[in-house]
Amino acid sequence: MKKREKFEVADQKQKILGRDGYQCQHCGEPARFLAHRIAQTKANIAKYTEFIVHHPKNLVAVCERPDCNDKFN
Known about the structure:
Blueprint: H1 3-19, E1 33-36, H2 42-48, H3 50-53, E2 59-62, H4 66-72
Antiparallel strand pairs: 1-2
């Protein structure tokens, strides 16, 4: 990943966390991570395209608890 791409990914992450109020969308705890509603798998990328799988509407803020991330995958 190029430096510019890393910046864009980090910028998108901050926007999504801000959109969700920096709160886990499952349990309400403080969030630092993102989860995909449609899981990021080769099959889903082939079916829906990378654009859909990585679209901001497909990403939600989650905390560090594995069950919160798993809820969305």
